[in-house]
Amino acid sequence: MKGGFQLSSLSPFESLITLAFMSKSFKYPFLVVSDGQGNVFEIPELYMVGMELQNIKLPEKGELIPLPEGSDLFKLPGRTAIGYDPERHEFVEVPEYEGEPVYPTAAFMAPAYVQYYRSAYNTLPDAPRLPLFSYTALGWRDEQFFVAGKRIDFDRRQDLALVDLNLVQRQAQQMRARYSQNRLVHHLVDNCVCRYGCPAARNFVLERWECPVPTSPVCNSDCVGCISQQPQASGVTPPQERIAFIPTPEEIAEFTVPHLEHAPRAVISFGQGCEGEPLLVGDVLEEAIKLIRQRTQRGIINLNTNASRPDVVERLLQAGLDSIRVSLNSAQPDLYNAYYQPRNYSFQDVLESLKIVHRHQRWSSLNYFIFPGLTDHPTEFAALARMIDATQINMIQTRNLNMDPEWYIDLMKLQHLSPENMGIRNWLGHLRTRYPWIKFGYFNPPREEMKPEHFRNQR
């Protein structure tokens, strides 16, 4: 025993350890663990560390920020925490502290933040699969938590500090009464606001910014990390249920037109976490967009989608769709297929949809899932560069992958991927240098942020 904690061998990691540059002037945050009873505390003899794939890293000063308000902390059961011992100059496992078992912890960062490193731990046999969240490296120093990440979008539309929960509840019931016959409004109020606390749905009832518009109960992907539908064999429970009906075009237009007319920085978005793929109800969306644009030209009509049906994307653009956001875990077709498990469409269809948006001179974004060690690997960077060159997208929205990291590594067969990644911070820098017109962020932008400099060979 040393310092009250028990050390264990790190033999499974020894060939993978890479130590980041260590600043002598910077006070590194301490390792944070859980006692398994709802309490977390620091181990002052050890520093926090993070992981990229299976590589353990000591974060640099510029890769650490105070824990954002609105973030959540998680205990990771069936796993052993890993920290850095500055006296022994090595990474160590910590199964116990002061004679009691301890567990790794992680942060699920608030919206608008990108993860640099995931929480570092060793998984024990028969450990349960982690729920569908992202798990960011967490530390403690000078009376505050630190995480390995960065704010990527300074739009505050989902900042918890701007949410008055009592006002949300009052406004939700008023919205429900105002649209007493509208099934979709009832779904947004009863499920999204009151049951799930959805930030976008809260903004809808507060009549501001981006309004969600779920429409499709069906999907043509079997995404492994789907947050609205999971097979029992997956071992995880989806955090929300999928919408069970298809709204009519009039139901959609009834509440979205007032939102576009009166909300500041107004956006409405088809394609939400509580639904399947909206392109599969393309006829409904096409008619709804026409109805909306007959009544108002204000604001942005956006589509969050897997981009599986280029012909439907074309029709929606002709009807008045302003922007499209395409979800993507990888720009490499084999890795894309392994995660999305597409039915009756291909990766080429995704590319074609983005090319169509570019031809129509509309806004296109990637909803790009960030997974340190893969996202920033040279092979993935090269594949993403080819995709950008072919489609001329306007924006990359960075989304931390919400999935058990080791499940993802096994699924993608990433165990033997070479450890030559550039780091997420450097990855962002390389992309900004190579593609200076691309906007980086987290949210679907309003019209005010779709500036001419973000368009390539268009405006």
UniProtKB/TrEMBL annotation:
<dbReference type="InterPro" id="IPR007197">
    <property type="entry name" value="rSAM"/>
</dbReference>
<keyword id="KW-0411">Iron-sulfur</keyword>
<keyword id="KW-0408">Iron</keyword>
<dbReference type="InterPro" id="IPR013785">
    <property type="entry name" value="Aldolase_TIM"/>
</dbReference>
<dbReference type="Pfam" id="PF04055">
    <property type="entry name" value="Radical_SAM"/>
</dbReference>
<dbReference type="GO" id="GO:0003824">
    <property type="term" value="F:catalytic activity"/>
</dbReference>
<dbReference type="GO" id="GO:0051539">
    <property type="term" value="F:4 iron, 4 sulfur cluster binding"/>
</dbReference>
<dbReference type="InterPro" id="IPR034457">
    <property type="entry name" value="Organic_radical-activating"/>
</dbReference>
<keyword id="KW-0949">S-adenosyl-L-methionine</keyword>
<feature type="domain" description="Radical SAM core">
    <location>
        <begin position="205"/>
        <end position="431"/>
    </location>
</feature>
<keyword id="KW-0479">Metal-binding</keyword>
<keyword id="KW-0004">4Fe-4S</keyword>
<dbReference type="InterPro" id="IPR058240">
    <property type="entry name" value="rSAM_sf"/>
</dbReference>
<dbReference type="GO" id="GO:0046872">
    <property type="term" value="F:metal ion binding"/>
</dbReference>
<protein>
    <submittedName>
        <fullName>Radical SAM domain protein</fullName>
    </submittedName>
</protein>
